[in-house]
Amino acid sequence: MSDNRIDYYAAKKHAHDHGDHDHTPLDEHDDGGAPSEYEIMSRAMQELLEEKGIITAEQVRRRMEQFEEEFPYRGSRVVAKAWVDPQFRKRLLDDGKAACAEMGVDLEVDRLIAVENTPEVHNIIVCTLCSCYPRALLGMPPTWYKSRNYRSRVVFEPRAVLKEFGTELPEHVTVRVHDSNADMRYVVIPMRPEGTTDWNEEQLAEILTRDTLVGVTVPRVKT
Q1: Residue 190 placed within a domain
Q2: How many other C-beta atoms can be found within 10 angstroms of the C-beta atom of residue 61?
Protein backbone atom coordinates (compact mmCIF):
# COMPACT_ATOMS: atom_id res chain seq x y z
CA MET A 1 0.00 0.00 0.00
CA SER A 2 2.96 2.31 0.37
CA ASP A 3 2.83 3.06 -3.36
CA ASN A 4 -0.45 4.85 -2.73
CA ARG A 5 0.99 6.78 0.21
CA ILE A 6 -1.26 4.92 2.65
CA ASP A 7 -0.01 3.14 5.76
CA TYR A 8 -2.23 0.85 7.82
CA TYR A 9 -1.06 0.77 11.44
CA ALA A 10 -2.96 -2.04 13.23
CA ALA A 11 -2.66 -2.21 17.00
CA LYS A 12 -3.72 -5.84 16.73
CA LYS A 13 -4.40 -8.03 13.71
CA HIS A 14 -8.03 -9.11 13.39
CA ALA A 15 -9.37 -11.88 11.21
CA HIS A 16 -12.03 -9.97 9.28
CA ASP A 17 -13.54 -10.45 5.86
CA HIS A 18 -13.28 -7.05 4.15
CA GLY A 19 -14.28 -8.33 0.74
CA ASP A 20 -17.86 -7.05 0.90
CA HIS A 21 -17.59 -3.26 1.03
CA ASP A 22 -20.49 -0.86 1.27
CA HIS A 23 -19.60 2.29 -0.66
CA THR A 24 -22.55 4.34 0.57
CA PRO A 25 -21.27 7.80 1.62
CA LEU A 26 -20.82 8.21 5.35
CA ASP A 27 -22.94 10.54 7.43
CA GLU A 28 -23.77 11.17 11.09
CA HIS A 29 -26.86 8.96 10.93
CA ASP A 30 -25.29 5.90 9.33
CA ASP A 31 -26.42 3.18 11.72
CA GLY A 32 -24.53 0.39 9.98
CA GLY A 33 -27.52 -1.93 9.84
CA ALA A 34 -28.25 -4.56 12.47
CA PRO A 35 -26.44 -4.33 15.84
CA SER A 36 -23.14 -6.16 16.06
CA GLU A 37 -22.46 -9.17 18.28
CA TYR A 38 -20.72 -6.87 20.74
CA GLU A 39 -23.61 -4.41 20.90
CA ILE A 40 -26.01 -7.28 21.55
CA MET A 41 -23.73 -8.61 24.32
CA SER A 42 -23.51 -5.14 25.87
CA ARG A 43 -27.27 -4.72 25.90
CA ALA A 44 -27.78 -8.19 27.34
CA MET A 45 -25.26 -7.48 30.09
CA GLN A 46 -27.00 -4.21 30.98
CA GLU A 47 -30.37 -5.97 31.19
CA LEU A 48 -28.88 -8.70 33.38
CA LEU A 49 -27.31 -6.18 35.77
CA GLU A 50 -30.60 -4.30 36.00
CA GLU A 51 -32.50 -7.52 36.75
CA LYS A 52 -30.07 -8.33 39.58
CA GLY A 53 -30.43 -4.84 41.03
CA ILE A 54 -26.74 -3.98 40.55
CA ILE A 55 -27.54 -0.94 38.40
CA THR A 56 -30.70 0.84 37.37
CA ALA A 57 -31.85 2.19 34.03
CA GLU A 58 -31.77 5.68 35.58
CA GLN A 59 -28.08 5.28 36.49
CA VAL A 60 -27.32 4.22 32.93
CA ARG A 61 -29.26 7.20 31.57
CA ARG A 62 -27.40 9.67 33.81
CA ARG A 63 -24.08 8.14 32.82
CA MET A 64 -24.93 8.54 29.15
CA GLU A 65 -25.84 12.18 29.74
CA GLN A 66 -22.50 12.74 31.45
CA PHE A 67 -20.71 11.35 28.43
CA GLU A 68 -22.64 13.66 26.13
CA GLU A 69 -22.37 16.82 28.24
CA GLU A 70 -18.91 16.67 29.81
CA PHE A 71 -16.65 14.08 28.24
CA PRO A 72 -16.49 15.37 24.63
CA TYR A 73 -14.75 18.53 25.85
CA ARG A 74 -12.00 16.69 27.69
CA GLY A 75 -10.12 15.69 24.57
CA SER A 76 -10.28 19.22 23.21
CA ARG A 77 -8.79 20.62 26.41
CA VAL A 78 -6.01 18.02 26.44
CA VAL A 79 -4.97 18.69 22.84
CA ALA A 80 -5.27 22.47 23.25
CA LYS A 81 -2.80 22.24 26.14
CA ALA A 82 -0.47 20.15 23.98
CA TRP A 83 -0.57 22.89 21.34
CA VAL A 84 0.57 25.60 23.76
CA ASP A 85 2.83 23.55 26.08
CA PRO A 86 5.67 21.70 24.30
CA GLN A 87 6.61 19.75 27.44
CA PHE A 88 3.06 18.53 27.96
CA ARG A 89 2.84 17.64 24.26
CA LYS A 90 5.95 15.47 24.65
CA ARG A 91 4.45 13.73 27.69
CA LEU A 92 1.21 13.16 25.80
CA LEU A 93 3.09 11.55 22.92
CA ASP A 94 5.23 9.47 25.29
CA ASP A 95 2.40 8.25 27.57
CA GLY A 96 -1.06 9.47 26.68
CA LYS A 97 -2.79 7.96 29.68
CA ALA A 98 -0.39 9.51 32.19
CA ALA A 99 -0.58 12.92 30.49
CA CYS A 100 -4.38 12.86 30.58
CA ALA A 101 -4.27 11.91 34.26
CA GLU A 102 -2.34 15.15 34.88
CA MET A 103 -5.47 16.99 33.74
CA GLY A 104 -7.80 14.88 35.85
CA VAL A 105 -8.91 12.61 33.01
CA ASP A 106 -8.96 9.00 34.21
CA LEU A 107 -9.03 6.71 31.20
CA GLU A 108 -10.58 3.26 31.31
CA VAL A 109 -7.94 1.51 29.17
CA ASP A 110 -4.37 0.35 29.65
CA ARG A 111 -2.90 2.63 26.99
CA LEU A 112 -3.78 5.81 25.14
CA ILE A 113 -1.57 6.51 22.15
CA ALA A 114 -1.48 10.07 20.82
CA VAL A 115 -0.57 10.32 17.14
CA GLU A 116 0.45 13.66 15.70
CA ASN A 117 -0.47 15.04 12.30
CA THR A 118 2.31 16.76 10.36
CA PRO A 119 2.60 18.30 6.89
CA GLU A 120 3.69 14.84 5.69
CA VAL A 121 1.42 12.51 7.73
CA HIS A 122 -2.31 12.48 8.49
CA ASN A 123 -3.72 10.03 11.06
CA ILE A 124 -7.18 8.47 11.32
CA ILE A 125 -8.63 6.26 14.07
CA VAL A 126 -10.89 3.25 13.61
CA CYS A 127 -11.84 0.06 15.37
CA THR A 128 -12.26 -2.60 12.72
CA LEU A 129 -13.48 -5.22 15.20
CA CYS A 130 -16.33 -3.35 16.87
CA SER A 131 -16.30 0.25 18.14
CA CYS A 132 -13.46 0.66 20.65
CA TYR A 133 -13.22 4.38 21.32
CA PRO A 134 -11.75 6.66 24.04
CA ARG A 135 -15.15 7.45 25.59
CA ALA A 136 -13.72 9.03 28.75
CA LEU A 137 -11.86 11.48 26.52
CA LEU A 138 -14.25 12.09 23.60
CA GLY A 139 -17.66 11.02 24.88
CA MET A 140 -19.87 8.51 23.11
CA PRO A 141 -18.72 7.47 19.62
CA PRO A 142 -20.74 8.88 16.72
CA THR A 143 -23.00 6.49 14.87
CA TRP A 144 -20.87 6.54 11.73
CA TYR A 145 -17.79 5.43 13.71
CA LYS A 146 -19.59 2.23 14.71
CA SER A 147 -20.95 1.53 11.24
CA ARG A 148 -19.65 -1.30 9.11
CA ASN A 149 -19.30 1.17 6.25
CA TYR A 150 -16.69 3.26 8.08
CA ARG A 151 -14.94 0.35 9.79
CA SER A 152 -14.30 -1.50 6.54
CA ARG A 153 -13.76 1.30 4.06
CA VAL A 154 -11.44 3.59 6.03
CA VAL A 155 -8.77 0.87 6.06
CA PHE A 156 -8.76 0.37 2.29
CA GLU A 157 -9.80 3.74 0.90
CA PRO A 158 -9.11 6.34 3.61
CA ARG A 159 -8.81 9.23 1.16
CA ALA A 160 -12.28 8.54 -0.21
CA VAL A 161 -13.71 8.42 3.31
CA LEU A 162 -11.92 11.63 4.28
CA LYS A 163 -13.31 13.35 1.20
CA GLU A 164 -16.84 12.46 2.31
CA PHE A 165 -16.12 14.37 5.52
CA GLY A 166 -14.87 17.33 3.49
CA THR A 167 -11.20 16.62 4.11
CA GLU A 168 -8.99 16.53 1.01
CA LEU A 169 -5.25 16.05 1.49
CA PRO A 170 -2.37 16.75 -0.90
CA GLU A 171 -1.12 13.65 -2.70
CA HIS A 172 2.26 13.74 -0.95
CA VAL A 173 0.64 13.31 2.49
CA THR A 174 0.79 9.78 3.89
CA VAL A 175 -2.48 8.60 5.48
CA ARG A 176 -2.07 6.31 8.48
CA VAL A 177 -5.03 4.35 9.83
CA HIS A 178 -4.74 3.22 13.46
CA ASP A 179 -6.81 0.28 14.68
CA SER A 180 -7.99 0.50 18.30
CA ASN A 181 -8.63 -2.54 20.47
CA ALA A 182 -9.93 -3.43 23.93
CA ASP A 183 -6.71 -2.41 25.70
CA MET A 184 -5.51 0.43 23.51
CA ARG A 185 -7.11 3.64 22.29
CA TYR A 186 -5.83 6.45 20.06
CA VAL A 187 -6.31 10.19 19.85
CA VAL A 188 -5.14 12.43 17.02
CA ILE A 189 -3.22 15.63 17.69
CA PRO A 190 -4.13 17.74 14.64
CA MET A 191 -1.89 20.41 13.20
CA ARG A 192 -2.52 23.80 14.76
CA PRO A 193 -4.09 26.11 12.17
CA GLU A 194 -2.35 29.25 11.02
CA GLY A 195 -3.63 32.44 12.56
CA THR A 196 -3.97 31.04 16.09
CA THR A 197 -0.57 32.07 17.46
CA ASP A 198 -2.05 34.46 20.03
CA TRP A 199 -4.98 32.25 21.02
CA ASN A 200 -5.29 30.88 24.55
CA GLU A 201 -6.15 27.28 25.43
CA GLU A 202 -9.86 27.99 25.76
CA GLN A 203 -10.03 29.52 22.29
CA LEU A 204 -8.05 26.66 20.80
CA ALA A 205 -10.25 24.04 22.46
CA GLU A 206 -13.28 25.51 20.71
CA ILE A 207 -11.96 24.55 17.25
CA LEU A 208 -10.95 21.04 18.35
CA THR A 209 -14.03 18.96 17.64
CA ARG A 210 -14.54 15.25 18.18
CA ASP A 211 -14.06 14.61 14.47
CA THR A 212 -10.69 16.40 14.41
CA LEU A 213 -9.47 14.19 17.27
CA VAL A 214 -10.59 11.07 15.38
CA GLY A 215 -8.85 12.42 12.28
CA VAL A 216 -11.69 12.61 9.78
CA THR A 217 -11.59 16.41 9.72
CA VAL A 218 -9.05 19.12 10.51
CA PRO A 219 -9.45 22.19 12.76
CA ARG A 220 -10.59 25.27 10.90
CA VAL A 221 -10.54 28.93 11.86
CA LYS A 222 -13.70 30.80 10.98
CA THR A 223 -13.10 33.87 8.87
Answers
A1: yes
A2: 10
How many domains in the chain?
1
Q: What is the CATH number of the domain that holds 18?
A: 3.90.330.10
Whether residue 188 lies inside any domain: the answer is yes
pTM of the model: 0.75
Catalytic residue among 127, 147, 152, 180, which? Answer: 127
Q: How does pLDDT run across 132-178, given as a tens digit for each residue?
A: 888 888 888 888 999 999 999 999 999 999 999 999 999 999 999 99
52 occurs within a structural domain: no
Q: H helices of the chain, where? A: 37-51, 57-69, 72-84, 86-94, 96-102, 135-138, 143-146, 148-156, 158-164, 201-206, 210-214
Radius of gyration over every alpha carbon of the chain, rounded to an integer in angstroms: 18
Say whether 100 is catalytic. Answer: no
- Which of 76, 100, 131, 180 is labelled catalytic? 131
The domain in which residue 175 lies consists of 2-33+72-214
Q: 150 lies in a domain? A: yes
Q: Tell me which of 130, 147, 152, 180 is the catalytic residue.
A: 130
